[in-house]
Specification:
- With about 300 residues, the protein is an alpha/beta fold.
- The chain has 2 domains: about 100 residues; about 190 residues, Rossmann fold, CATH 3.40.50.
- Helices cover about 45% and strands about 15% of the residues.
- It is built from 10 helices and 7 strands.
- It has a 7-stranded mixed sheet with strand order 3-2-1-4-5-7-6.
- Helix 2 runs antiparallel to helix 3.
- The chain is globular and about 65 Å long.
Length: about 300
């Protein structure tokens, strides 16, 4: 897709952007934003269509031939209902994986201060990335202490853990990601804990990790930006399972309904969602934390395991 066609398509869908895409990475990011927006629009439209079809009583009083036609229409409606959901899942597992595999394989590995550029954060400089990681941790209760253990879902090349390890001198660290190239890099950055990094989707049970294993469990962006709302409770409960009792959890890059800085975020999540599900998650002290200024109206959420 050319730069011009991406820009024109985004304007037609009323997707805000500040400048034209000049590089391959920028075009790829815009294409991802376009697809995510299209899926959100389709999901909204399918509900309205289904409601209109089912609310028309005259359709149920027609002859047999008309009823057969109606059955075909209804089947098409349900196809519209499920296609966006599974279409986005396919896109997510193919296109996004390719994106991160490519970033991890092509960035400059010799500079560990720029690990984040191998995990889709190439638009941030080193200071900007560190701020994006450290600002949300202000709401952690208990906070990170020297020697603590940390696990990250969607760890990428390990950039976030490297920032935390440099500041807090962490003990055991680990993480999973569905990008094999990213995990390969993370293993080289943390060779003493290489067995704690492996390829796995965050939407699958992490059976290799016993309960109550880590002091802190995080997901910096991966859960908030690339999963649908109905997928999130499973990951939260799995994160809580592997967190030690009294340990803290942090998930970032969510946006409320009506928020403007959507980008590649799939589903908007009301801030009230988290406190309302504390009992189901097995957590307490849910706290909403504003992210750094570069992330605009996106937010993070901290929790403490009961």
């Amino acid at each position: 897709m050319s730069t011009r066609s991406v820009d024109i398509t985004l304007r037609r869908l009323h997707i805000p952007f500040k400048r034209r895409a000049k590089t391959r990475g920028e075009r790829r990011s815009l294409c991802h934003t376009l697809y995510a927006s299209a899926m959100r629009s389709a999901i909204s439209a399918r509900g309205k269509l289904l409601n209109n079809v089912l609310s028309s009583p005259s359709l149920w009083l027609r002859p047999r031939r008309a009823k057969i036609g109606f059955a075909v229409i209804l089947a098409s409606v349900f196809g519209l209902f499920y296609l966006p959901h599974y279409g986005f899942k396919l896109y997510k597992h193919v296109s996004i994986r390719y994106w991160f595999d490519t970033d991890a394989a092509t960035f400059n590995r010799s500079n560990v201060g720029e690990l984040h550029k191998g995990s889709g954060w190439s638009y941030l400089d080193r200071h900007g990335f560190e701020s994006m990681i450290l600002v949300p941790t202000q709401c952690l209760n208990p906070p990170i202490l020297e020697g603590n253990s940390v696990f990250e879902f969607g760890v990428g090349t390990g950039g976030a853990i490297h920032v935390l390890a440099s500041k807090y001198k962490l003990g055991k660290v680990g993480g999973t990601d569905f990008s094999s190239n990213s995990i390969e890099v993370a293993k080289t950055i943390f060779p003493e804990f290489k067995d704690n990094f492996w390829v796995q989707s965050m939407t699958e049970p992490h059976l290799r990790i016993p309960e109550n294993s880590y002091d802190h469990v995080f997901s910096f962006g991966a859960m908030g930006m690339y999963l649908s709302l109905d997928e999130m409770p499973f990951i939260v409960k799995e994160a809580v399972r592997i967190t030690k009792r009294g340990g803290s959890l942090l998930f970032t890059h969510f946006i409320e309904p009506g928020g403007s800085h959507v980008g590649s975020i799939v589903d908007r999540v009301p801030k009230s969602f988290w406190a309302a599900h504390e009992k189901m998650f097995g957590v307490t002290a849910t706290t909403i934390q504003k992210m750094d200024d570069r992330q605009k109206d996106r937010y993070a959420v901290c929790m403490t395991k009961v």
